[in-house]
Amino acid sequence: MHATTPERQEKGRAPALAPSTKPPSTSASSSCCNPREAPDPALLLRTVLGSSAWTAGERRGGGMGSFAKLARRAVETDAPVMVKIQELLRGATNVMSLAQGVVYWQPPESAMNKIEKIIREPAVSKYGSDDGLPELREALLEKLRRENKLTKSSVMVTAGANQAFVNLVLTLCDAGDSVVMFAPYYFNAYMSFQMTGVTNILVGACDSKTLHPDVDWLERILKQDPVPKLVTVVNPGNPSGAFIPRPMLERISDLCKKAGAWLVVDNTYEYFMYDGMEHYCIEDKHIVNLFSFSKAYGMMGWRVGYIAFPSEADGFHDQLLKVQDNIPICASIIGQHLALYSLEAGPEWIKERVKDLVKNREVLVEALSPLGEDNVKGGEGAIYLWAKLPDNCSDDFEVVRWLANKHGVAVIPGSASGGPGYIRVSFGGLKEEDTRLAAERLRRGLQELVTDGMIQ
Ligand SMILES: Cc1ncc(COP(=O)(O)O)c(C=O)c1O
């Protein structure tokens, strides 16, 4: 992949995938603010009639005549790539998706049966403890000890790992702080920084062969003054599917510790390991680990994740609690019960499903082969392959659109993750039979792309 220097990423981010969502500067708002200009009669009418005379678009601040300005924090945050892909899919017919990071299975049947029995209990409809249901937290502490060897961590249950990440950014970073991530990065983590005003995002490169982060670069960047506040990695990675070996993560941790930076490790794909590789976690007073129920237990829509944070870090919990209390208050109670019951099914239940993904991965690696063997990477863990498009395809979103419209298959453009000219292919969302059908389309599309280009 392209070497991604911090300078390039800071000053000239990957090209936007679609026209910017920045609102047009409205003549109404400027005439409103400038007393020397004659007032817009339509505005006067609205003032008389009140805001109910506004159109829905205007109320959102996106249309003509809005008095109010949208926050720069939000406006300058990247648009969510999955929403763009969903729009693309809505416009096309009969498209198979290898785009979204999902799994095809449902939560454990035994857990679903138990949920049915408690749905009408009054406690399910009330708020619960901000930190999470006590019985779930207890089960998670036990799971963290037994499976992840984390013994000095406390736990907070969140509405998924994405909300956990936003909680952490708000708890650990101030607007204006610098933070570190590595490209290709998880797009939602990048957006979490952007929308909280942490816009000094230093993006390091990953090795073009292994997709492992450039730790020598990290060593240099952590000597900056002021020191970056936080370093984050996903292991195994989204979108790369690469797995950071323990000695490398330990070195990253040591560098962060020495510099006084937080290290946030997103373990959303802890169970999605292949070819005999074993997931691990590391623990220290500057390390925070994130987890999710979404993929492991097929619980994407139930919104449950959790944060394992260092018990000994002074004030951590008190500050985290303020953020939690203002965003979800607590994760959905019924979702937390399902999580608790799913834990009873345990890792064996997950592994049984994950092992079948190996076939999907194989089928899709083959489908990507027109791009050349050396251009297809990842898939050591998680549910992703990361593939380089031919050199003349720097507009990866155009390729994605073409693949969907002409060949009926959707993938994610790499530029959403700071990797323009690449695509991310997910092998978790379809059963083997459907994966084969989608793979056939992908192969045909890529073969045509390589030999003839994007013929409409
Ligand atoms: C690395 C990573 N973190 C977090 C999430 C979001 O997980 P959740 O559904 O728990 O919010 C995803 C989902 O794709 C992910 O890939």
Automatic annotation (TrEMBL):
One of the record's GO molecular function terms: transaminase activity
SUPFAM superfamilies: PLP-dependent transferases
Keyword Ligase: no
Ranges of Low complexity composition bias in the record: 14-31
Record-annotated Aminotransferase class I/classII large domain positions: 94-442
Signal peptide extent: none
Cofactor: pyridoxal 5'-phosphate
Similarity remark: Belongs to the class-I pyridoxal-phosphate-dependent aminotransferase family.
Protein name per the record: Aminotransferase class I/classII large domain-containing protein
Region (Disordered): 1-37
Entry keyword set: Aminotransferase, Pyridoxal phosphate, Transferase
CDD domains in alphabetical order: AAT_like
Species per Swiss-Prot/TrEMBL record: Urochloa decumbens
Gene3D superfamilies: Type I PLP-dependent aspartate aminotransferase-like (Major domain) (3.40.640.10)
A Pfam family reported for this protein in Swiss-Prot or TrEMBL: Aminotran_1_2
